[in-house]
Design brief:
The protein is an alpha/beta fold and 287 residues long. The protein has helices at residues 47-58, 79-86, 96-106, 181-192, 220-226, 236-247, 256-263, and strands at 4-10, 15-21, 27-31, 36-38, 43-45, 62-67, 89-93, 122-124, 129-132, 135-141, 150-154, 157-161, 199-202, 217-219.
């Protein structure tokens, strides 16, 4: 079955969020939403999420799922806000617990921060499935960028998060805690083993040199033939050498500190103090 996919591009973070809908019904899922955040002022805004809400309501859709491909390090998730307004269960990969353990320690969260994934409604393992109306979604564990990255294969469409980018841009970095270039290569091979006409929807786009427009949809066949990092039969050892050398030159995403603290909580802010004030921590010389 061919799901209907509507894309929402966030200029501030180069993130693409998706509404995936059953073509024969009104059930839908939202994948990788964005909560707007101004780091300098510490203020949040819901304009990006509201655009999705407006679309869902205009199309008379019912949201079954609010899905995360992984714990994003470059934007905050709007999952709780969308769930409050539209319903649906919030889902992520079961390895979120390893992310919570790692970053719970990094941000000195203490014992009150639960590291069991209980902030989410569903924790998916490799091989699990779910439904959006008559659409079946299959879950692939595709680690490498992070240990908890998932790819959601829904009908003829695969939502790969940061595992793959457009063919002219390549693949995701692997230098975050728990990341692995070897694991990423193996995960990409699983994705590229899908039928060649499978549509690939990526989590970000930054316009590769020479390309004037943002883009976020390709196919397995295009990725196999033209991906600059893994296409045309690239060997694992060559990819790992390239990826590790490239990652060593990259700076941290500008929103990594707030993003990790919020996203490991399923998009919720840390608990407020006795006066109702919410604070985020900045670990010094730790990232």
């Amino acid at each position: 079955m061919k799901p209907l996919v509507t894309s929402f591009f966030d200029d501030a973070t180069n993130t693409i969020s998706y509404v995936v809908r059953d073509p024969e019904g009104t059930q839908a899922a939202i994948i990788d939403s964005v909560l707007d955040f101004d780091y300098a002022s510490g203020r949040t805004d819901t304009a990006s999420a509201d655009a999705i809400i407006d679309f869902v309501k205009a199309e008379n859709l019912t949201v079954a799922w609010v899905l995360e491909t992984h714990v994003h390090a470059d934007h905050l998730s709007a999952a709780p806000y969308l769930q409050e307004k539209l319903g649906g269960d919030i889902g992520i990969g079961a390895n979120i617990t390893s992310i919570q353990d790692t970053f719970g320690k990094l941000f000195n969260e203490g014992t009150e921060f639960q590291r069991d994934g209980s902030q989410f409604d569903a924790l998916f393992k490799d091989g699990d499935s779910f439904h959006i109306g008559q659409l079946r979604g299959d879950v692939m564990h595709t680690p490498g960028h992070t240990p908890a990255c998932m790819t959601y294969v829904i009908g003829d469409a695969a939502f790969v998060g940061d595992t793959l980018f457009m063919p002219d841009f390549g693949t995701a970095r692997c230098d975050f805690p728990g990341g692995s270039a070897t694991d990423l290569f193996d995960s990409v091979q699983r994705i590229l083993a899908l039928p060649e006409d499978t549509r690939i929807f990526v989590g970000h786009d930054y316009k590769a040199p020479g390309r004037e427009e943002f883009a976020w949809e390709s196919t397995v066949g295009e990725q196999k033939a033209r991906n600059v990092h893994v296409g045309d039969g690239k060997a694992r050892e060559d990819f790992v050498e390239m990826r590790e050398m490239r990652d060593a030159s990259l700076g941290m995403p500008k929103l990594i500190v707030p993003s990790l603290q919020v996203n490991m909580r399923a998009g919720n802010m840390p608990a407020a103090d006795e006066k109702g004030n919410v604070f985020l921590k900045v670990p010094v010389n730790k990232l």
